[in-house]
Design goal:
Length: 394
Amino acid sequence: MAAMTSSARPHLNRRLAEFGTTIFAEMSALAQSTGSINLGQGFPDTDGPEEVREAAVRALRDGRGNQYPPGPGIPELRTAIAAHQRRRYGLSYDPGTEVLVTAGATEAIAAALLALVEPGDEVVALEPYYDSYAASIAMAGGTRVPVTLRPHDGGFRLDLDELRAAVTGRTRLLLINTPHNPTGTVLTRAELAAIAELAVERDLLVVTDEVYEHLVFDDAEHLPLASFPGMRERTVTIGSAGKTFSFTGWKVGWVTAAPELVTAVRSVKQFLTYVSSGPFQYAVAEALALPDTYFEAYRAGMLAKRDILAAGLTEAGFEVFKPAGTYFITTDIRPLGEKDGFAFCRALPERAGVVAIPNAVFYDDRDAGAPFVRFAFCKREEVLREAAERLRRM
């Protein structure tokens, strides 16, 4: 006899009903089935430094991290993270109480929002936003309030008046991402100062996603929001080894914050993965101690890749918003006679043998994002040149 269900209610929690299979899974599958160049998902097609990979092998062989590592992360990595924040930005954190290692930045985002947001709280987030933001806010029972970055002078800009107007008596937290995925915007000193002033004035918590901190180009500079007056005690800063060292599969991220905020985030994190990436934590500790020449060469290499793809996309007829950070380029497809990013991206593999991502998936207002398409340039230069040539032929 067939088992009876208690009701006709859908199996998936209603808070997550709007979230199905991610567009990244769909487009990556399409890339594989068509043999297309995948410029959709943001992962490099080469590994990071050999000495960092060897550090992971050494840890495995020496039996370091093969069993459960400490819940907050191994002491060596927490110390290295604190040293990195101090050396790069002059921010001092206690490795024992103010640093938490996570299973990538995605877990850090989820744990922070689940810890700090309760049902009914509003979370103001910059739109378009990384897709896990919306899901994490929903899981926490919060209400997301988007503030849209809009095209302006060849890039995307934040309207500070719109941000201020979005804050209400129910606002609990600002969710900031700089350098910003997918637009490549890097918030300026003046913009960050205004955000800090608003957070202090309205007594708001801030979660700031800074995983692309080492990928800023041209005249842009990365300034941690926690370094602004009144922000250290109210800011949860998220970082990641995956984007900085090109080992995205290792899933090593971290949180730096005041002790009470780290304690709150850790209280949630322990019931998500508990711990992860044991041997890789030792390798990332060594990676963070690499000389400045590594970070400079990494940035310069990615800048060259940005310019190769940007030039190819421009020649192919796209309007290109050249990013000041990250490894993504946002384009406008309307000069090509197109207006629906979803339809364009689903047809692009057959038309050109290239895969991209429709930016509309990063918007609450799908119409606002409809004509924009994102390409990743964290690939080998010869791959980018081939993709650019395919798009030109299209």
